[in-house]
Automatic annotation (TrEMBL):
Protein name according to UniProt: NAD kinase
Family: Belongs to the NAD kinase family.
InterPro entries (UniProt xref): ATP-NAD_kinase_N, ATP-NAD_kinase_PpnK-typ_C, NAD/diacylglycerol_kinase_sf, NADK
Keyword NAD: yes
Described purpose of this protein according to its UniProt entry: Involved in the regulation of the intracellular balance of NAD and NADP, and is a key enzyme in the biosynthesis of NADP. Catalyzes specifically the phosphorylation on 2'-hydroxyl of the adenosine moiety of NAD to yield NADP.
Organism phylogeny: Archaea, Methanobacteriati, Methanobacteriota, Stenosarchaea group, Methanomicrobia
Reaction it catalyzes: NAD(+) + ATP = ADP + NADP(+) + H(+)
GO molecular function: kinase activity
Active-site residue list: 63 (proton acceptor)
Pfam families: NAD_kinase, NAD_kinase_C
């Protein structure tokens, strides 16, 4: 296989581990390259995220590192995360499991697609999100007003600190903290979770990807949209966000660890 390795850069032990994993994978007969930032830290030449291609990207880091890699790749390549982070929900293997995982496989990796959401603001595409897009006010302790349009019908109008538009993958991240449900990643849907809504009762909504979903910002206050904690966009006053299922899902290598076991083990005692 042609494998690209990405390491988190702020931890020398993760970089050392990545270098030794590169040697192990080469000795198993794989073609190994390093992502440019990782390579620079190891004194080698590498490939920028945008140009990553091949059969597999191995990310040594936590969820932030996996999100960054998926966000930066122009063309999605299957990702396998090795958990060198605090939670590592998206990083399935522990460092001591990686060698046995690769020793048992030459090139028959099973890959699971994970839906992403494609986001446009006032008709211009701004990016795809694997976890979520969150709209937040620029001014602390000020509320925004939102209207949610589903198939041209005004479904909900409310004031809140912000609004999360999450994927099922993101349901275990920010959306969970904001009171949203855990959504099986095999379901395709848009999960809307308001942040501190100003009303007596408000419920998260799970909306089919077959519907036309638009979020209108009905406010004069400055706001930002953040994708996966990676990119931030300034929103014009009264911007309209169009939400679609991306045609370019993220691809994750299936390691055989059941999703609901991970929920139980990794998210119970945070
Ligand atoms: N209050 C919150 O829960 C909150 C606030 C801001 C951002 N976030 C999340 O952080 C993500 C960015 O990650 P980061 O590591 O760069 O930021 P970060 O360093 O602020 O960490 C956010 C935490 O969320 C966890 N996380 C991220 N994606 C997850 C997922 N799909 N399932 C379970 N846990 C997950 C990470 O392990 C980490 O512990 C955003 O996409 C957002 O979902 C959460
Ligand atoms: N190759 C890279 N180039 C630049 N920045 C990187 C790279 N890899 C990781 N980062 C950044 O370094 C930080 C590492 O955090 P990461 O989320 O991986 O670990 P963590 O916060 O300890 O774990 P978790 O998110 O699982 O709790 C993130 O902000 C990530 O975006």
């Amino acid at each position: 296989m042609k494998i690209v390795l990405v390491s988190r850069l702020d931890d020398p032990e993760a970089l050392d581990y990545t270098a030794s994993l590169a040697r192990d994978l080469e000795s198993l007969g794989h073609g190994v390259a390093l992502e440019a930032g990782t390579a620079r830290h190891l004194g080698r030449e590498g490939i920028p995220f945008e140009e990553i291609a091949g059969d597999l990207v191995v990310v040594v880091g936590g969820d932030g590192s996996v999100l960054l890699t998926v966000h930066q790749m122009k063309k999605q390549v299957p990702v396998l995360g090795i958990n060198w982070g605090e939670v590592g929900f998206l990083a399935d293997l522990e460092p001591d499991e990686a060698r046995a995982f690769f020793a048992g496989r030459k090139d028959n990796l099973q890959v699971e697609p994970r839906m992403r959401i494609s986001l446009s603001v006032d008709g211009t595409w701004i990016g795809d999100a694997l976890n979520e897009a969150v709209v937040v006010t620029d001014r602390p302790a000020k509320m925004l007003r939102f209207c949610v349009w589903v198939d041209g019908t005004s479904a909900e109008r409310f004031r809140a600190d912000g609004l999360l538009i999450s994927t099922p993958t993101g349901s275990t991240a920010y959306a969970m903290s904001a009171g949203g449900p855990i959504v099986d990643p095999q379901i395709e849907g848009f999960l809307l979770v308001p942040l501190a809504p100003y009303m007596l009762s408000s419920r998260p909504h799970l909306i089919s990807t077959r519907r036309n979903l638009e979020i209108a910002l009905e406010t004069e206050k400055p706001a930002h949209l953040v994708i996966d904690g990676q990119s931030t966009f300034e929103l014009e006053r009264e911007a309209t966000i169009t939400v679609k299922m991306s045609e370019d899902p993220a691809l994750f290598v299936a390691t055989g660890k059941p999703f609901f076991e991970k929920v139980n083990h990794k998210l119970r005692n945070l």
